[in-house]
Design a protein that fits this description.
354 residues; alpha+beta; SH3 type barrels; 5-stranded antiparallel β-sheet; 4-stranded antiparallel β-sheet; 8 helices; extended
């Protein structure tokens, strides 16, 4: 016998749940079948609409970040300093004339200078010692002994037209001098009787003299106490030696020779103006000579004889007549009246040019 199942009646709650499950399944299938819509990208500052509280917080943060640089500027990291590239100064070009002079200095020879302005400067034989380049004038200068004037001179090289080497000693060379003496040191350095010089140099000049080239042959400097130094050298021209010593003023004390000390004293007296002061002193007024008294007789005679002889002379004299008319009597109060004073004499003193 066959058994038939009778369907069980569903409750209200179960029926409602089934309907919900079917509707969900239909919705999910519809979503899968429908194409996805591309939504536009929202700005970063805006938050999603579901959380309004979060949106306000993010706006406040953004505003705070924007307002911070205005109140407190952000310090940027400094860039690393780059090395400054400086161009090396152009070396002064050695002109052909300066090159000829430099060669003569190295070889110990004298040269002949011919100037561009031959009317103002005649040709001469020159003993070069130093060749220097001056930064202020941007020119070459040569220093040495000028045989035309027998003195030390500076000459500017660009004012020369020719510089010719001199064969041998050259003209106007002083002598006697030892054999083998360089021709560019015959002048005021080795061209005659040598003069031995000794002087004490004060401490403010010791370093400068040590750094400078020697001014004379056999130049020696020896340190002493209190920072002073003893300088000794030999030369042949007293004027050149005196100029070298006087450039230090009170910073040098010459010990020998004695004639160098006397020459410096003479120059110092002229610098002090003693000769000018004596010339400008007002002349003293000349005093008129007084009348001499009458000659007295010889003292060996007795006194009463001299008186007798003088009496008749006095009696023989007659009163002289007044040459001028008598003055009128002075008025009363004349002594109280102010007397007119004569203007004083003005003495004019001539000053010689300094």
């Amino acid at each position: 016998m066959a058994v038939t199942k009778i369907p069980r009646k569903k409750s209200v709650t179960t029926a409602v749940e089934e309907e919900k499950s079917t509707t969900k399944a239909k919705a999910t299938s519809a979503k899968k079948a429908a194409p996805k819509k591309v939504e536009p990208a929202e700005p970063k500052a805006k938050a999603p609409a579901k959380a309004p509280a979060k949106t306000r917080a993010t706006k406040a943060v953004v505003v705070a970040k924007v307002e911070e640089p205005a109140s407190e500027p952000v310090l940027s990291t400094p860039a690393e300093p780059q090395p400054v590239v400086r161009r090396a100064p152009a070396t002064p070009a050695l002109s052909p004339l300066a090159q000829t002079i430099l060669t003569a200095i190295c070889e110990g020879r004298a040269v002949e200078f011919i100037f561009a302005d031959s009317d103002a400067n005649a040709p001469r034989t020159f003993e070069p010692r130093h060749l220097t380049f001056d930064t202020l004038s941007q020119a070459w200068y040569v220093w040495g002994w000028d045989r035309r004037y027998n003195a030390e001179r500076h000459h500017r090289v660009d004012l020369l037209a020719e510089v010719n080497a001199v064969e041998g000693v050259g003209r106007a060379a002083q002598g006697p001098y030892a054999e083998g003496t360089p021709a560019n040191q015959i002048g005021g350095w080795l061209g005659g009787e040598p003069i031995a010089v000794r002087a004490t140099l004060m401490k403010q000049w010791v370093f400068a003299v040590k750094q400078a080239p020697p001014a004379f042959p056999n130049f020696k400097i020896e340190d002493q106490g209190d920072g002073q130094a003893l300088v000794s050298f030999s030369a042949t021209d007293l004027r050149a030696i005196a100029r070298w010593a006087m450039q230090f003023g009170e910073g040098v004390q010459v010990l020998e020779p004695a004639r160098l000390v006397d020459r410096i004293k003479q120059v110092g007296a002229v610098w002090a103006g003693r000769d000018r002061l004596q010339a400008t002193v007002a002349p003293t007024p000349k005093v008129s000579p007084r009348s001499e008294p009458p000659a007295e007789p010889h003292r060996s005679e007795p006194r009463h004889h001299r008186e007798r002889e003088s009496k008749p002379e006095r009696e023989a004299r007659t009163p002289r007549e007044p040459e001028h008319e008598a003055r009128p009597p002075r008025e009363s109060g004349w002594e109280d009246a102010p007397q007119k004073s004569k203007p004083g004499k003005v003495e004019v003193i001539r000053f010689d040019r300094l």
